[in-house]
Structures are given as structure tokens and as C-alpha cells.
Amino acid sequence: MHQQMSGLHRMSSIKVVCMRRLTLWWAVPFSLAGLWACISPASEAQPSTSSTPSSSSQASAMPKINDTRVYRRFDDDSLKKSLSPLAWRVTQEDATEPPFRNAYWDNHDEGIYVDSTSGEPLFSSLDKFDSGTGWPSFVQPINGGSVVEKRDVTHGMVRVEARSKTGNAHLGHVFDDGPRPTGLRYCMNSASLRFIPRAKLEAEGYGAYAALFGGTAKPVDDLASGQCAPDAAGGPGCASSFETIVVTASADAEKALRTLPGVVEVSRTAKGVEVVFDPAQTSADVVRAGSR
Predict the structure, then answer these.
(1) Cα–Cα nearest to 47, from 224, 227, 219, 178
(2) Range among 11-15, 61-65, 152-156, 157-161 rated most confident
(3) Are 11 and 102 in the same domain?
(4) Dihedral angle over CA of 32, 35, 41, 47, nearest 10
(5) Is 187 an annotated catalytic residue?
(6) Cα 223–185–119 angle (5° rounding)?
(7) Other beta carbons within 10 Å of 27
(8) Which end of the chain has less neighbouring CB within 10 Å, N or C?
């Protein structure tokens, strides 16, 4: 009996040693991968699947939404009529709008944000926070299945792109530097969204989502500091595809600017005529010359 126990003890010890050796061998590639992520200049913040809330935790955090509407992507001809040139470039050609010069980065009203190409609900104001980046940011989608995440290796970076499920529109990118409760930051383009105020949910056909605002909701944390400085064009997710300048232009010159190749948006503000243009197609000097 004593010999049998000793034999079992030796076998157990061998197993422990083997497991330790296997653990060390398995740890090597993961350690190298972690080192590479630290030293790679193209590395970007990646959403962590472990910090993504489960469907059950989301369900307990908000009332169940009974949305029976069927959402479909509008055809290209309809989208070209309804979307601005800037919104078309963003949603259909994966461009990024300028920070701090878009519709919803500083919007604090209650309501939901829907896909500008299909009308499908994507985000709620209850999950919106101030990231300091100049783009609307959320901790999670309004419905886990409405936003699709894809690996994006463009521009020499490794990121996670967010696209709308029904409209297949480019929305923005997802990072793992967000606040509680998910730790995620869905950094979106305003041009990809349409905001439906709480007071207009019923009239716009989104009455089912009024239940979200029926009680007292705990707001998510704003980040203490911006995830990228306004002028940090090379920061993670903080590079716009366009440049913006303000010029002085008459009404006729303003019309001419709208037809200038490379100009995607022209709007008159208190400071003058604001022009958003693609630097790959034109330049600030050309735009200024066109405003005279």
C-alpha cells in the first residue's frame, strides 16, 4: 500500500512539473506578443472582449425594448439626396469628419442616435460621455447586434472599426480606454448618425425606446482628460480625413465654393464661411482663392 501511494505521489509530482514546463512554454509566445504590442509604433487601443458587458448584464441595466420595425438600407440614389457630401464620404468611403466641428460631439440632450443610412437605432444618450476627443463617444451600443466590429489595418494602424449592421455604414472606431461600466469608447462620426430627441421618439416611429427614459438613469463617467488632444492628429483615432478653414465670401462665392473639387461641406457661421475640404484633392490656398 505504501509503495502504491509513493508511486502515485511520484506520478503526481511528474504531472505538476510537466504542467509547469508546459505553462512556461505557452507563456513565451504570449509574452513576446505583449512586448510587441508595447514597442510597435502601429499598435492601437483594442477593445477587450472581457470588458464587453454580456447580454444578460445589459438586459438588467435597461428595460427590454420591443422594436418590431424592419430596417433597410436606403439605395444609393436616395442616400446621395439625403446625405451631405461629407456624410457620404464618411459612411460610404470610411472617411473621418473633423473633431469639434460636427453635430453631436457636444450634444447633451436626451434621445437616441440612429443610423443615417437605414434609421436603425445605434446608441442612446444614456450611454454617451464626454471623451474630450471632439467626436460623440459612447460606452456601448443601444443594442448589441446593431453595431458590427471589424479589424481595421489602414493608415499603418491596427484598430477596430465599427459599422452599422443593416446599413453597413462606417461609424467610427472602438477603443478600450473608455469609462465605466464597460471600459470601452465607441468613437463615432456625427455624420453617420441622426439624433432623435426624447420628445420626438413617438412621432418619429421610435416610441418603443421611450421606455429607456422612463426612470432615473445613472449617467456614465466623463473622462477626466481627453483621449487625444484637439491638435494631436496622429493620436489613436484622432485623425480627421478633412481640413477646415474659415474664409470671407459673398453669397455668389459661397455657391462657387460648393462646386469646388475636394470641398465636402460649406456653411456660413458667425465667424465667416466655414469650408471643410479633402487635402488629398485640394488645398487651403485653392479654397481661399475660390472665395474671392
Answers:
(1) 178
(2) 157-161
(3) no
(4) 90
(5) yes
(6) 125
(7) 10
(8) N
- pTM score: 0.66
Q: What CATH code is carried by the domain that includes residue 103?
A: 2.170.150.20
18: cell is 510537466
Same domain, 201 and 113: yes
Is 225 within the bounds of a domain? no
Residue numbers of the domain that contains 267: 243-290
β partners of residue 173: 161, 187
Answer whether residue 103 is part of any domain.
yes
* Cis peptide bond prior to 98, omega within 30° of 0: no
Which CATH number does the domain housing residue 269 bear? 3.30.70.100
Is residue 236 domain-resident?
Answer: no
Range list of β-strands (E), the chain: 111-115, 121-124, 128-129, 137-138, 147-152, 159-164, 170-175, 185-188, 193-197, 243-247, 263-269, 272-277
Residues 272 and 165 occupy one common structural domain: no
d(CA 107, CA 120): 20
Cα–Cα nearest to 181, from 235, 126, 228: 126
* C-alpha cell, 60: 438588467
Of 18, 38, 187, 228, which residue is the catalytic one? 187
**200-247: per-residue pLDDT in tens?**
999 999 999 999 998 555 556 666 445 554 444 444 456 677 888 899
Quick one: 163 and 194 in the same domain?
yes
* Per-residue pLDDT band at 131 (split at 50, 70, 90): very high
Question: Is residue 255 located within the same domain as residue 189?
Answer: no
In a domain, 120, yes or no: yes
Strand bridging mode 272-277 / 243-247: antiparallel
For 255, residues 6+ apart whose C-beta sits below 8 A from its C-beta are: none
Q: What is the DSSP letter of 53?
A: P
Reduced to 3 states (helix: H, G, I; strand: E, B; else coil), residue 167 is coil
Non-local CB neighbours of 171 within 8 Å, separated by 6+ positions: 115, 122, 147, 161, 162, 163, 164, 186, 188, 189, 192, 193
